[in-house]
Each structure stands twice: as C-alpha cells, then as structure tokens.
TrEMBL record:
Taxonomy of the source species: Bacteria, Bacillati, Actinomycetota, Actinomycetes, Geodermatophilales
Signal peptide, first to last residue: 1-22
Keywords in alphabetical order: Signal
Pfam families in alphabetical order: OpuAC
Top-rank lineage group of the source organism: Bacteria
Domain ABC-type glycine betaine transport system substrate-binding: 31-295
Protein name: Osmoprotectant transport system substrate-binding protein
CC terms in the record's Gene Ontology section: ATP-binding cassette (ABC) transporter complex
Organism the protein comes from: Blastococcus aurantiacus
Length: 298
C-alpha cells in the first residue's frame, strides 16, 4: 500500500469522530459528509454550504482540516467523503496537471474540470462568482523602502529575501513553483508557516520578508501590509466551486443540488472577506459565522 492509500485508511477510521459541531445523536447513515481542506477559509465555506443543505432538510456531517488536496481529492473520489468546496483554477490544475494550454475563462475551465471529474465519479456544480486567489504580501515599510508594488518588482530582490508560506507552497504551481516559472523568482530562504496567522506574524516581526496570504484574507484590510499585483497573471480564476460525489448527488437529487447551487449564486467575494473577518478577527466559529450569514439572507 502506498503512502496515499495509508493516509486514506487512517482518514476513513478517523472521520466518524470528527465534526464541525457536537451532535446530540449519531448522524444518520445516509448523512452527506462535507470535508474541508486544512485552512480556515475553506472550513468556513464548507460550513456555509453544509448549512444550506441542512436548511433543505438534508442530514450532513462536517469534517474539518482533513488535509491538502493530495489527501482530500482521492478521499472524495474513493467515497470517504461526499462534498468538497474547491477553487476552480487550482482544482483544474490538480486534476489535469499536464493539460496543454489550460483554459483561462471560468466557463471553459468549468467544462474541462466537469469532464475530468465526471470520469472519476464526481459532479462539478456551478461555480460561484466569489473567488479567492493566492496573494503575496510585504509590509508597507518594505514596499516604500524598495518602491515595490508588483511581483515583477520583487524579482531582483528575491535572492536576498526570506519567504514564508504554507508547507505545500514549494510544490504548488500557483505558489513558489509558479513564481519560479512565470517570474523567474527564487528566494534566498523559504520557511514553512503552520497557519496564515503565523505567516502574518512572521512578516510583521521581520522573520520573513514576503508572505503568502489569500486575497480574501480579512487581515489585509487592517494589517500594515501591501498585496503585490500579479502583473504577469500567474494566478488563474479561482471561483468557489462545490464538488459532489455523483452517487450522493443522484441519491439526494434536486434537494442537495439546489441547496449548493443557490449558495453559489448568493455568495460574493466580499462575503468571503466578511466571513473570514468574522472568524479570524472577531473570534466566531466557522459554523457560527456560516449560520449568521444564512440568517441574514433567509
């Protein structure tokens, strides 16, 4: 058994004990299992979509922080989990890493992703207008001192700089790999950060010079940092998109699909920022922020 297979076995054993909220009784056997990636915004999004399903009468469970795509994507395809909320460009790049001339328009990206994942037993639902991309930030003082406002402007400085980002960043096409390929940018040192909050703390303390934060991170509006412009268009469109196991989609039919599609239709990029703010800055739980978001709209 390979490492991925072993991870899935462990995941299968652990999932029944995980959840977004403590339930007074065991979940029904036919509950739809929502799973999130290992960063806060995705946990919030999963709660938003799961709450929509609950309000349509669909029993759900929520498992948070399952891992990176190397774990979550095969878990979805192999029936360990049922629903994942993903981001269009990154989901397509992961599903079709060798795809020649990948499309850039969201409709075309969705079409390719739907064909690819459909052959793996996964339905790709309608993307939301809401999107979140990888962003690269420096402090305001650094930007002013070096006259930097774009990623291109950072290139000649990079060999003398320390970069901080998620542990998987060196292997991601829209993180360090992409910076190397599109910008020919290589940093003098790379530090793995356990969380986005830790990345910001390291940036403000001077431990790192450049950090990766998502473009919808609420801290961008309150911290003394500058989001560098992606002037060579490294980042793809990253519309939020639900992925659902076809078997589960067929079982629940229009009730589940309608709940998820209506969520995507309502969600905006500004909503993502505000939801992130509620959790990251105001201290609400992802489930609480999601419920409040729905209460304000129902």
């Amino acid at each position: 058994m390979g490492a991925r297979g072993a991870l899935l076995v462990v995941l299968l054993l652990l999932l029944p004990a995980c959840g977004g909220q403590a339930d007074p009784a065991p979940a029904p056997a036919d509950a739809v299992r929502f799973a999130s990636y290992d960063f806060p915004e995705n946990q919030i999004l999963v709660e938003v979509y799961a709450e929509a399903a609950r309000r349509q009468g669909v029993p759900v469970t929520v498992q948070h922080g399952i891992g990176t795509r190397e774990v979550v994507s095969p878990a979805l395809q192999q029936g360990v989990v049922d629903v994942v909320v993903d981001y269009l460009g990154t989901a397509l790049a992961f599903a079709r890493p060798g795809f020649p001339r990948p499309p850039v328009a969201p409709d075309n990206m969705h079409a390719v992703l739907a064909r690819t994942m459909g052959g793996r037993g996964v339905d790709v639902l309608t993307p939301s207008a809401a999107e979140d991309q990888n962003g690269f930030v420096v402090t305001r003082d650094f930007a002013a001192e070096h006259g930097v406002g774009t990623l291109s402007g950072l290139v000649p400085l990079a060999p003398d700089l320390v970069f901080g980002g998620p542990p998987e960043c060196p292997h991601r096409p829209f993180c360090l790999l992409g910076l190397e390929k599109v910008y020919d940018m290589r940093f003098g040192e790379v530090l793995a950060m356990p969380t986005r909050a830790a990345t910001l703390e390291a940036l403000l303390s001077g431990q790192v010079d450049v950090g990766m934060l998502e473009t919808t991170d609420a801290r961008l509006a309150v911290a003394p940092v500058v989001l560098l412009a992606d002037d060579r268009a490294l980042q793809p469109r990253e519309n939020v998109v639900p992925l659902v196991r076809a078997e589960v989609s067929d079982r629940w039919g229009e009730r589940l699909r309608r709940a998820l599609d209506e969520t995507s239709a309502r969600l905006t990029t500004e909503d993502l920022v505000q939801l992130n703010r509620a959790v990251e800055l105001d201290g609400r739980s992802p489930a609480g922020a999601a419920a409040n978001w729905w209460d304000a709209r129902d």
